[in-house]
Amino acid sequence: MATYTSSEKQGLGSAFFDALGTFYRRRWLLGYFIHRQVTRAYRRSYLGLAWAVLGPLVWVFFLALIFSHVIGIKDRAVEGDPTLNFGLYLYCGLLPFLTFSEALNKGLNSIRSNSGLVQKVVFPTEILPFTNAIASMVDKVFGFGALLVMLLLFGRTLHPTLLYMPVIVVLQMIFILGLTYIMAVLGTFLPDVGEVMRPVIRGMFFVTPILWPPDRLPDSLSWIEDYNPLAYLVNAYRDLILDGTMPGALSTLYFTLFSVALFIVGFALFIRLKPRFADHL
Amino acid sequence: MTPAISLKGIGKKYRITSSKSLRLREILSFGKKQHSQDFWALQDIDLEIEQGSTLGILGRNGAGKSTMLQIISGVLQPTTGTVEVNGRLIAIFGLGSGFNPEFTGRENAMMNGLILGIDRHEMLERFEEIEAFADIGDFMDHPVKTYSSGMKSRLGFAVAVNVEPNILVIDEALSAGDASFKKKALQRMYDLRDSGTTVLFVSHSMGMVNRFCTEAVLLNRGHMIARGTPDEVLGEYRSVLEKSQSKKDAKNAERDQKLDYAIAHEDEDDMPDPPKGKGKRGQRRPTGEAEVLDIKLLDEDQQPAGRVPSGSNLTVRVRARYAQAVDGSAFGAVLRDRSGTLLFATSTDMEEPPLGARAEGEIVTVNFAFGAPFRPGHYGVEATVSGDAGRLLGRTGEPATFEVVAQERLAGDVIQPPTRVEVYDHEELGPAT
Fold this sequence. Notes:
heterodimer, A: mainly alpha, 11 helices, 68% helix, B: alpha/beta, Rossmann fold, Coagulation Factor XIII, Chain A, domain 1, six-stranded mixed β-sheet, 10 helices, 27% helix, globular
């Protein structure tokens, strides 16, 4: 904040780590921003933050009820487990998907929707996509809590593999952050990307094994699952939460490498182009 | 001493295309077709601003004032040149714009401080000060959506000026807020100035710039065309304004000139005691084409009076002689209270009938009659005669003074307007928000 000179042309590398340092230096700002994002939706309501759990709870309850008692997919052999409730199975896949689609949508608008901050204040803009991504992750943690409640309610055992969930969530966070930064840049410079992404997100819903179990996939189409990072997340969620098994080591390694690469590329792109944001709003 | 701000060869270029699809066609043609134009919002700006000086930035709309402030504050990157800033810089472009309506004033104030780059501990320490300055009472703990726009800017301004910036950049930020807050805000700006804060200040109020700033620059179409004392630069500014005005027809020009005058003097009455002494109002000299012979105050019986009861009807009678023939002119009357606060102004141009062409030596008398719901006290009235193209032909040397005496049941500071009171037994009307 103190002294700056515009002529200091920083190398991309040092700018990159400098920006990472901002997250620590402006941690309070970050905290308030995330808090604001998470609570904003529930501010007007009487129950407030309780809705963050109640909302998903009601939803997952209906999913479980409808699919088991109305549509009658109850006890159907999904992935060879005859006791599995399809509603819970579906919700388990929806959680990572919703984080993904929210991150994409919010990321696209993260600079535009804060034009006041970008154009009027000297502001570390890298905070904006970051808080967006974290806020939707936090929101899904409440959803995860609701899922646990429903698992208990439906009399399912809580597997010890649940303890590995934080690892998956951290990997997911890196993936989501990378995606959000790329989207933030694209959405700012190319408004048309927003229109492109809408059908893409819808397509991802059907291409990812959320509605259908992955073992139904014919071998000729297995690449749909193999090269889909979202499919890895959905499967990992189900493995850890519903089945009590560990996700494959190799696929975890691939996903980790992919996510880290995505983050580095996305963040570097963002840092490189952020001085020009104010001109493009 | 190192300058607070140093600009070297600053330029800012924008590429302007009328539509995105045209721009796409240009990109796809690989440079064969040109649909866009380069527009330099700023060019070749060299400027060093010493620590502790207050710089007024003048210029017409689109002259590049805001762009310059945005480049100085680091929001925009210059296309050419370098900026060097030494010290904590706080920029106010529109107050309270970062506020979120669902959150309380307290939460938003904290957010705003953090956004401006102030440490959380520092904010917590200064919170009382900020709260006292904003002076919005219990609303501090209510959501900002319940605030009036004035309250929002009070809070925004309170945060920005109470964190002791070394450099304060203000872009037309004082236009919102009521007179008492404006006064407080200005007082605070004087305090900051006197404590050595460098202030950069964009305003269209010539009076403000003249009184507040130690120096001024004038921007015109992206170039800095004058720099110097506020007096000198204001002179240049007026000639720039006049040049653009002389192109318009006489009728409009006269109205423009009146409006310009009103705009330029808009906030000068909200000043705390002007430090440069009274009487320096940036008044223009009359051309002498007309002479105000006398100005009289008449009571309800059309008798000259020095004392009138509050709430009665007054007539201001202005008599003037034309020293030269004119095509069109207007008489105006301006009422001020003892401290110089403008109470109201009127003119034949605003009220009709028009005066029309007048021959040399002709004497005209105009009566301005109005109700005077003023508080008891001393008041002054001045008269002006203005001509076409906005020239000031003549004015009273000294204002005529009169006294308003009490009638009854008066409380308040300045005026006693006609008032009607309604009482409702039930909460029929919602609380004002």
